[in-house]
Amino acid sequence: MLVYAMIFVGVSICIALVLNLWRVFKGPDVADRILALDTMYINSIALILIYGIYAKTSLFFEAALLIAMLGFVSSVAFAKYLLRGDIIE
Amino acid sequence: MSMASRIFPMPLHSVMLLIVWLMLNNSFSLGHIILGSVVGIVIPIVCAPLRIPQPVIKRPLKLIPYTLMVIKDVLVANLEVALLVIGPMNRIKPGFVAVPLDLDEHLPITVLTSTVTMTPGTVSAELSEDKSYLYVHVLNMPDDENEIIDLIKGRYEARVKEIFGC
Amino acid sequence: MSFIQELVVTILLVIGGIFVLVGSIGLMRLRDFYARLHAPTKATTVGLGSLLFASMFYQLFTQGKFSISELLITLFLVITAPVVAHMLAKVAMHYQVSTIKGTKNLHHVKTARDQQPPKKETRS
Fold it and tell me: What domain range includes position A62?
């Protein structure tokens, strides 16, 4: 039962990633693309965690944490750049 | 400057760093507690000159019912948003609302805006320069916009004010 | 692992997967940027939160050790997701992205761009 649930979750996260990618390419505004990219970061954390449960290891936890931090920082940096034309003033 | 405040410039932050270190390593062994204590003492000393004075949390115990209430609201909000997203798009009537604020410090406003973003169909969009108005985007606007203003002011802002005692 | 324990983990996993998918469907379907901002910031935090709890319970049931490090990611995401949403809303206001017809109180965008209080007092 658990294995089927994991496959279901993995597939739905992959579909979600494809939908996000579609939004990244389509736009129409630059803010939409950043939002889609930020959602992609969160979805990839989910995918890594699911793989961690599937492979019965907690090694991937650090990778998920790193993606969470880098995703936040890069989203804020993009937003800041668009707002002020500079990241560090 | 007394000796204690020179070694522990930010005691709360020291404790938090220790807890985060233990959570990160997922163990409570003596070695990690010592290492975490070193981290918790050294980093605040290095960072002390950068600190910005923050308002003190007057009633920390009130945080617990507030957090529980917010978690409950987040779960309900998610179901609502999920149903709206899956349903027909014509039903959605978005709108902007300007909420007058009574808070005037940075930390309480940050707590309030984060709560507003996490809960029922609202996203905080902008704060006016004099911190008197918070602009909120509402996904599904009721006919009377005062409903949203009363919800935010009565349900969340009053409690945040109580916690920070201002 | 007993049947009940497996059921708990499975339900949490499925709820997480559905919410993550709904967040992305919202990102695709909703019609203007401000509406699109709602779906991912909310749905993905709960979706990911429930996946992380599933991971926690799974480790607890299989290894008998309570793993609290997952809480760290949940906490981090709950703190950072509103910040990103707020920054992106600021960007959208700065660039004056198009909004769908029927958006109420659009005059607020103009004053919000300049970080000024609203001109017309709407609350009597």
Answer: 2-84
Spatial CB neighbours of B153, under 8 Å, sequence gap ≥ 6: B99, B100, B102
CB atoms within 10 A of CB B73: 16
What's the ipTM? 0.86
Distances (CA, A) of A37 to A30, B50, B101, C22: 11, 32, 32, 16
A21 part of a folded domain: yes
Residue C6, both tokens: 């497996």
> Is the pLDDT assigned to residue C124 strictly greater than 50?
no
pLDDT tens digits, residue range B19-69? 888 888 877 888 989 998 888 888 888 887 877 777 777 777 788 888 898
Facing C17 at nearest CB: one of A8, A28, A79:
A8
CATH code, A34: 1.10.287
CA atoms A78, A83, A85, A86: torsion sign: negative
Is position A12 within any domain? Answer: yes
Distance CA A49, CA A43 (A): 10
Q: Which of A 16-55 lie inside 8 A of C, CB atoms?
A: 16-17, 19-20, 22-23, 28-32, 34-36, 38-39, 42-43, 45-46, 49-50, 52-53
Contact of C64 with B99, CB cutoff 8 Å: no
- Is residue A79 in some structural domain? yes
Distance in Å from the first CA to the final CA of chain A:
54
CA atoms within 13 A on the CB side of C30: 29
